[in-house]
Automatic annotation (TrEMBL):
SUPFAM superfamilies with a match to the protein in the record: WD40 repeat-like
Bias (Acidic residues): 1-11
Keyword field: Repeat, WD repeat
Membrane topology designation: Peripheral membrane protein
Descriptive protein name: Autophagy-related protein 18a
Compositionally biased tracts (Basic and acidic residues): 12-23
Repeat found in the keyword field: yes
Subcellular location, record wording: Preautophagosomal structure membrane
Region (Disordered): 1-44
Coiled coil: none
A Pfam cross-reference name: PROPPIN
GO CC terms of this entry: phagophore assembly site membrane
InterPro entries tied to this protein: PROPPIN, WD40/YVTN_repeat-like_dom_sf, WD40_repeat_dom_sf, WD40_rpt
Length: 397
């Protein structure tokens, strides 16, 4: 089924294609035998284009210049790979939990799919069962059990999953990194994205039908993440020295932590499952773990902001920032990290908390996989528990 582009000016940025198979997608766990690696292709090392965790942080996916692969984090192992016959590149691959459904976007010098298309891939049948086509390049995709969120340069589309019905669209400031975060709790859908002004973060509470705004950083937004339940939001500015933790319900600033004094690019932020810890990676080659002080007592009152009243949001949030620069900043005292892990500089890393207690998983775009453990009592340097290079040829795995 193919839908023509809508005539309405507000909805003309996308096309939708949907196969009959997608009406009843297979929601079953069907990962193949880990020892089976179909379509493995050449044993030479591929070029890594993308790496991302699944929503539960138990798996990670990588896109290469010839296909994609799925790995288990603990214990580390390759679950399966798909190398396309034409060696087409995959620039984005997002896993739908532990199911056989993945979302793919082309990438590299010879993309497998156009850069303006999102492909719904059913790995049980090794083919696409649906696709979304846009008039500009796709910058990012986010998934949760009931939604697909597609991020373009200046617009975000929210679709129902699995029928791909368009539910909402949001205009943003220029967003080349494809910044967006969604909660994973079934009964509470929270989406965070850039607003229409520099440093402004937009928070959509779909269950509550409320939109709120936070002026998080006057230097602009470099990175942010949500806790699994969507209550806590961590943001990093373009200066990369401070990370701020907010309550998304009343948009209050709860805590401020300091990565370092030197300017840095923050690559990744991650909450632990209980929101007790926050991990931060940057171009300085160090992963920091901070202890958080958030708890249910911080929820406070619910002060709604109208989605059309951004001027009011700007005024309120600017006042909050002025407090941060003064007494509030001194009160929080920019707490420093409890634990650190040193990595080679010049590599982009993303982080997540492992399923083992007090562990952190680190993935590098050089193919590096680290599993580290920190001591919550003494802190200091983390202990490396495991290391692999997941770009090595198949025979070396």
């Amino acid at each position: 089924m193919q839908l023509d582009p809508p005539d309405d000016e507000t909805e003309k940025d996308y096309l939708l294609h949907d196969s009959d198979d997608n009406k009843n997608p297979p929601w079953t766990f069907v990962f193949p035998d880990p020892d089976s690696k179909p379509n493995s292709g050449s044993a030479s090392t591929p070029a890594l284009l993308h790496v991302s965790f699944d929503q539960g942080y138990g798996f990670f996916a990588m896109g290469t210049d010839r296909g994609f692969r799925i790995y288990n984090c603990c214990p580390f192992r390759e679950n399966f790979r798909r190398d396309f016959d034409c060696n087409g590149g995959i620039g984005t691959v997002e896993m739908f939990l532990r199911f056989n459904i993945l979302v793919l976007v082309g990438g590299g010098e010879t993309p497998q799919y156009p850069l303006n298309m999102v492909m719904i891939w059913d790995d049980r049948h090794s083919r696409c069962t649906g696709e979304l086509s846009f008039r500009s390049e796709v910058r990012g995709v986010r998934l949760r059990r009931d939604r697909i969120v597609v991020v373009l340069e200046q617009k975000i589309f929210v679709y129902n999953f699995p029928d791909l019905t368009l539910l909402h669209q949001i205009e943003t400031i220029a967003n080349p990194k494809g910044l967006c975060a969604v909660s994973q709790v079934a009964e509470s859908f929270v989406l965070v994205c850039p607003g229409l002004q520099k440093g402004l973060v937009r928070v959509e509470h779909y269950a509550l039908k409320r939109t709120k705004f936070i002026f998080a950083h006057d230097s602009g937004i470099a990175c942010f993440t949500l806790s699994q339940d969507g209550i806590w939001l961590a943001t990093a500015g373009c200066k990369g020295t401070l990370v701020r933790i907010y309550n998304t319900h009343d948009v209050t600033l709860l805590q401020e932590v300091r990565r370092g004094a030197d300017r840095a690019e923050i690559y990744s932020l991650a909450f632990s499952p209980t929101a007790q810890w926050l991990a931060v990676s940057s171009d300085k080659g160090t992963v920091h773990v901070f202890k958080l002080k958030v708890n249910l007592g911080n929820l406070g009152s619910d002060r709604s902001l109208s989605p059309t009243d951004q001027n009011l949001a700007a005024t309120t949030s600017s006042s909050s920032l002025s407090l941060i620069k003064g007494g509030l900043h001194s009160y929080f005292n920019s707490e420093r990290s409890v634990a650190q892990f040193r990595l080679p500089e010049g590599v982009r890393y993303i982080v997540a908390f492992g399923h083992q207690k007090n562990t952190v998983v680190i993935l590098g775009l050089d193919g590096s996989f680290y599993l580290c453990k920190f001591d919550p009592a003494t802190g200091g340097e983390m202990t490396q528990l495991d290391y692999h290079n997941f770009l090595e040829p198949e025979e070396a795995l």
